[in-house]
Amino acid sequence: MKNLKHRELQEGEFWRKFPAFAEVSQDEFIDYKWQIKNSISDLKKLVETIEYFVSDDFLLAITKGFHLAPMTVRVTPYLLSLIDWNDPWNDPIRKQFIPASNRLIEDHPMLTLDSLHEQKDSPVSGLTHRYSDKALFLTVNSCPVYCRFCTRSYAVGADTETVKKMDLYLNSKHWETAFQYIESCPELEDIVISGGDTYNLSAEAIKKIGFRLLQIPHIQRIRFATKGLAVMPMKILSDEKWVDALTEVVCLGRKLHKQVAIHTHFNNAQEITMISKLAIDKLFERGIVIRNQSVLLRGVNDTSEEMQLLVKRLSYINVQPYYVYQHDMVQGVEDLRTSVQTTIEIEKNVRGVTAGFNTPTFVLDAPGGGGKRCIHSFEYYNPETGVSVYTAPSVKPGKYFMYFDPLHSLSEEIRQAWRDENKRQQMCLDAIYHSGVAVRSHFA
């Protein structure tokens, strides 16, 4: 019999294995309000919750990690119960949400906080208009959990000891400014509603935003972006008002012959449980399309086997694997980045394991605002120096965009060269020269 591991979803009262939730009933655990109330964002509370069954070394590492992380830490009881606390160092869920100082490594000198230059492409607060027919509408700056690798660590969540967050003024007053801009641009057809996380919008806000956008004549497609399905699926099972609001938006879209979808964010097959499936089933029954956008993360999903399992399991629960992103060049999470070569090899091994429409596209969101490029579409790539050069002729013609593999993937000699400003500049110039990009091009 062929491997059917992707159908083996964790079920039953698995959270009771976690000491802190041993007495929690199913009714409590499935209640999204209980999940919110008992989510952990405080170091003291986290230590108190896990100190009896992890090593002192681990407690020391996460204590220091809290002080170094660019993102606020916030995890749900659901996520905590999915972590293998017998080996928290190597657990793929722990790595994404709880920083351990002794696993952090040196940032590449080319990293920034806003590597995608979203603010440079923002005509009004909270709206990024980079592609001619699509805009990113940021509606809220908070999330049900905070991913360590967030590409918007410059603005999302509370201030940390290492990052003072930019205030994007995301509220209903500024939504109106965004609506007016969208209405003034007839070329816009596709709006991604994000943040933060749209899970944190009220039911009333979901309807207000969805209805308003769908009633703009030239808008044909809207997508609600949320990691919520991966980190707190119980909201779908217990917040009827919110799910009904989303359903009303979907139904209006269907009547107007416009697409409405959810884009969610599972990164590892371990995150998909029977609770996940029940939540997805509920949305599927209502005709709601769900697509997944993963990020390739070192030690989380950076092997062909892990990615194949994730893709197959997503397909099994009726979530379309849509994108796998190369990790953005954001600061403070270099331990999670992988090389472009790693991504290319994984893509080769994923393609062919399932139907083409359930095979994700592996993309790199070009630093500097070039938009999404297929990972293998570079003009030049040198695995030795880790420099890849991309162009985006339909987005920003005449410009080129460089991505830099993490230092840990390079030889010691090249790592030392990147620490030297003159050698650093020469490696970039060499890559541009060998790419064959016209001289008139310039770095965005």
UniProtKB/TrEMBL annotation:
One of its GO terms (molecular function) is isomerase activity. Keywords: 4Fe-4S, Iron, Iron-sulfur, Isomerase, Metal-binding, Pyridoxal phosphate, S-adenosyl-L-methionine. [4Fe-4S] cluster binds at C143, C147, C150. Residues 349-375 form the Lysine-2,3-aminomutase C-terminal domain. Pfam families: LAM_C (PF12544). The modification N6-(pyridoxal phosphate)lysine is found at K372. Signal peptide: none annotated. Its cofactor is pyridoxal 5'-phosphate. PANTHER family: L-LYSINE 2,3-AMINOMUTASE AQ_1632-RELATED, LYSINE 2,3-AMINOMUTASE-RELATED. This is KamA family radical SAM protein. It comes from Amazonocrinis nigriterrae CENA67. The lineage of its organism: Bacteria, Bacillati, Cyanobacteriota, Cyanophyceae, Nostocales.
